[in-house]
Amino acid sequence: MSANSTGDMDIINASRGVWLVKVPKYMATEWATAPAKSELGRLKISKGLGGRPEILFDLSGDVFEQANSHRGASDPKIPKEHRFIISDISHQHLAVFSCPKDDKSGTSSKLVLEGNVVQKGECRPKADTNYMRLKAKQMEIARRPNKVVLKLDQTPISYLPVNSHRVELDTDSKRKGENKKSRDEKDKVLDMLFKAFEKHQYYNSKDLEKITKQPSTYLKTILKEICVYNTKNPHKNKWELKPEYRHYEEEKGSKN
Questions:
Q1: Which of 37, 52, 96, 120 could pair with 87 as two cysteines, CB 3.0-4.6 Å apart?
Q2: pTM for the complete prediction?
Q3: Helix axes 25-33, 61-69, angle to 10 degrees
Q4: Where is the TFIIF beta subunit HTH domain (predicted)?
């Protein structure tokens, strides 16, 4: 409750049922800037394999075009079609509250109960090649460092190069240098991993090290971002992509 509210609560909407839906960040951003009362998208309900209902959510054409209009020709586009996943909330009791501000005073006069959550869902994009590129691009942008301009108080000291360098290594040092794996750029490693998982769903750590030729510790750090590690049979001690990165034909009928 707001510190400026009087302590009153409006419960006129206590019997109203509302849906709590998790959407991707790019979708929430476009919705926030969409014109008032404009169509954001549509739900399509049909029967899937085994008679199970299959729910899809399509972004409206206006929102989809607006979201991709500022992207370059080579940039990945945001997905238009999403799977709508329903979750069970029988073990939870959730409600939505708001603190509307008074037009004159600018303070919250009371707490408003907007409704009780009767259904929980998630809009999940189809993990096709375009979406993989979009996620890789977002991760690349998130890792970009903030550039800082520094003013030097004095001229930096420069050193003249010498004519030759003599480096002596013993046999053990040479062997260690030859066997040491060098780190590739993270984007390159991600690309290799996504391509590998397009061929097979499960891999153990040693196989992925052979495919990417990356140091074990460095590779595991990247794998933890996009994969889950199975600790139970039948795929014990093997990696697989997290649900948001998976794209398997059988997933439609067997999952969700």
A1: 120
A2: 0.46
A3: 100
A4: 183-246
